[in-house]
Amino acid sequence: MREDVSKIGWLLCTASCLSVVHSRTTWRHLEAAAYDYNFEAYCSEFNKTYPAEEVPQRSQLFAKRLAEIQQHNTNTNSSWKMGVNEFTDMTFDEIGRFKGYTKYAGDAPQAPELTVAVEQLPDSVDWRTKGVVTPVKNQGGCGSCWAFSSTEVIESHAAIASGKLEVLSPQQLVSCAPNPDKCGGTGGCQGSTQPVAFQYVETAGMTTDASYPYTAQTGTCDPDKVKPVVSIKSHVVLPLNDYSSLLKAVATKGPIAISVAADWFGYEEGVYDGACGSTIDHAVTLDGYGSENGKDYWLVRNSWGAGWGEGGYIKLFREPNPSCAVDKSPEDGTGCAGGPATQKVCGICGMLSESSYVLGANVIMNEQQSPQTRLRGIQL
């Protein structure tokens, strides 16, 4: 996603960098409080401060969004609920800075066709239950969703292969992964794509988050911090807009890097079947699928902190017959410079439009770690 990711700065205070929001006001709390939740309480909860001249504008925006939340949540037939979060008083331009992905038009090899029949797949899959998924992270006001999604996929696939779950460094990708073809942006906090990140890791490996901590800034690559603990051999992309291929891949291979039109910043819980638009602008990770109250969903991990959505996740409606639309601005999503002017995108929020995963991921042995101390590979 190509975007103007200038610093949001102190206006967001510390809220944008929090990984977890404790004692968060939920839609149930709003109902119990008879809708007396106000802007002052909101700022206190999310640790936000504004100059006096900006308060009226922010307060009005908050009141408008709160009314939308309350109105939506009165619909007893809706499969999902909205709630207040750090985005409730932000403009759409500011919210856009928490994305950072553009559609990829590169030449990565196609994933091998999986011969398993859809009917033979389990009714539900959640890779978190296998112990191969790290805690939810927060990209903050940097357009680095592509780096987080890539990191999460590599973490999980290395854990599936080795039995050892490492918390890897999205900052390494933000600062070090080159993007000469301007796929998804110009790189760093200005956006890129997961295949670009995977291609870099194939030669550089990945270090831990502790060795190369996240700063929410592009910065300059520091090779002294890049001490690889995980490697990958290659990566593949799934067929575009192919429901069965994505379902098979996430069920049998592991978490998958996907792209979406992320117009669901107000989501709190349930199976989301609301409007999304068709402009792909955000990179996330597919960690499974299932059903809730008779409604099928995709289990999608976001990078907006564990205080957003359902512990940092959103359940997207898994349509039996996915609808399609046309992304008229693929350069704002996953496209490289000189790519096509339009792109067909299918599935809710366009989530079937581009998917990829890595091959040959593994934890690199070092002299302090012998084979006897390694866990056995995860049993699928």
From TrEMBL:
What's one GO MF term for it? cysteine-type peptidase activity
Database matches in PROSITE patterns: THIOL_PROTEASE_ASN (PS00640), THIOL_PROTEASE_CYS (PS00139)
Q: Which UniProt keywords apply?
A: Disulfide bond
**UniProt cross-references to InterPro entries, sorted A to Z:** Papain-like_cys_pep_sf, Pept_asp_AS, Pept_cys_AS, Peptidase_C1A, Peptidase_C1A_C, Peptidase_C1A_papain-like, Prot_inhib_I29
Q: Which residues form the Peptidase C1A papain C-terminal domain?
A: 121-334
SUPFAM superfamilies found in the cross-reference section: Cysteine proteinases
List, for all copies, the residue spans of the domain called Cathepsin propeptide inhibitor: 39-95
Question: One Pfam family of this protein, by short name?
Answer: Inhibitor_I29
- Name the Gene Ontology biological process terms: proteolysis
What protein family is recorded? Belongs to the peptidase C1 family.
Q: Identify this protein by name.
A: Uncharacterized protein
Taxonomic source organism:
Cymbomonas tetramitiformis
Give the taxonomic lineage as stored in the record: Eukaryota, Viridiplantae, Chlorophyta, Pyramimonadophyceae, Pyramimonadales
